[in-house]
Specification:
Structural class: alpha/beta
Helix content: 25-40%
Distance between the termini: 21 Å
Number of strands: 13
Radius of gyration: 19 Å
Low-confidence stretches: 103-113, 162-173
Mean pLDDT: 86
Oligomer: single chain
Number of helices: 12
Strand order of the largest sheet: 6-7-8-9-10-11-12-13
Shape: globular
Largest sheet: 8 strands, mixed
């Protein structure tokens, strides 16, 4: 049994295919759909990477066993909504859907965090009589022939939260931390800011196969909730050895803490963003992983990862460019 991971180029969004291969059988999981343009470009109507991937699956006679929509931010739900509006899939193609649907938002002025998009998607599911599973919260465990999925986040409080305000739009923000050397980052200590209620309510999972391979896929989840959930998994020794770790919120420092590395020993860490709008990922996260681990750092936009490495970093960490790879 093995886990294959494909991270599509979804600009500053997330769109991840996970394939669990088990004795000739494949179990396909899609986590989020990126922006609407991940499915189809707006002006030229050109197929985006998600639409191309779905077409390939259909041509090969394959299907999606589980679609997980981690939360309602548009860089995660937009591509799914565009897909379902344009080409609603048959039930035999998308077998099961997870989406937490009881997080509502009063202020919908920010189009990047608009509850109306989630409502539109849920209405599409209802109109096509397609069931979905909600109440996906920490502590939920689902058994499969190949292994198990452990839900690590959100907790029940965040799952039920109602957002009163939405974070202000950040337009093409540059990340000012990239020019700071890794060792300087390590001297500064760790600081982070509070998350939006939408991110607090994000689904995060641990995928565990019967032969012991683990993958963490953290959506935009609250790192404190994730750390607490991993600590509570008594059936696993710590640190938890993971083949893949998809970092929360595109590698944001607000969704990561050094304590995570005491609980998780990851071979491969995934950063999924081209850096538009929010300046992700933060170099503080990459710096910590480069300095404290021997892991490989994978980027679906590899130039973003390379851009944060200074000449001093190359001198301090001679293998650093070999550890930054394109997924």
């Amino acid at each position: 049994i093995m886990i294959k991971v494909e991270v599509l180029k979804a600009k500053h969004g997330d769109c991840i295919f996970i394939t669990v291969c088990d004795e000739g059988k494949e179990y396909v999981i899609l986590i989020d759909g990126g922006l609407d343009t991940t499915y189809q470009e707006r002006r030229r109507r050109q197929s985006g990477p998600l639409k191309e991937k779905l077409s390939k699956l259909k041509e090969e006679g394959k299907h999606i066993d589980l679609l997980i929509i981690t939360h309602i931010d548009y860089d995660h739900i937009g591509g799914i909504l565009k897909w379902f509006e344009a080409d609603f899939p048959k039930e035999e193609f998308v077998r099961k859907i997870w989406i937490n649907d009881d997080v509502t938002i009063d202020d919908t002025s920010n189009l990047n965090n608009n509850a109306k998009h989630a409502v539109s998607l849920l209405k599409l599911l209802d109109n096509h009589n397609v069931a979905h599973e909600g109440q996906i919260v920490a502590g939920k465990e689902v058994l499969f022939d190949w292994g198990k999925i452990y839900v690590l986040a959100p907790n029940a409080v965040d799952h039920n939260a109602i957002a009163k305000r939405i974070a202000a739009n950040l337009d093409n923000k540059l990340n000012t931390s990239y020019h700071i050397n890794i060792k300087e980052h390590e001297k500064k200590g760790w600081t982070g800011e509070d998350l939006t209620p939408e991110n607090d309510a994000s689904i995060a999972i641990l995928l565990h196969t019967n032969n012991g391979e683990n993958g963490l896929f953290l959506g935009d989840a609250n790192i404190d909730t994730v750390i607490q959930s991993i600590s509570n998994l008594k059936v696993f020794e710590k640190p938890l050895c993971c083949k893949w770790v998809k970092l929360a919120h595109h590698g944001s420092k607000n969704n990561f803490k050094p304590e995570f590395l005491q609980l998780v020993d990851g071979e491969n860490y995934i950063f999924s963003s081209n850096g538009d709008y929010y300046g992700h990922p933060d170099k503080e996260v990459a710096a910590l992983l480069i300095d404290k681990t021997n892991a490989i750092l994978w980027f679906n936009y590899v130039e973003r990862g390379r851009s944060m490495i200074t000449e001093q970093d190359k001198n301090d960490y001679p293998d650093v460019m070999d550890r930054i790879k394109e997924l």
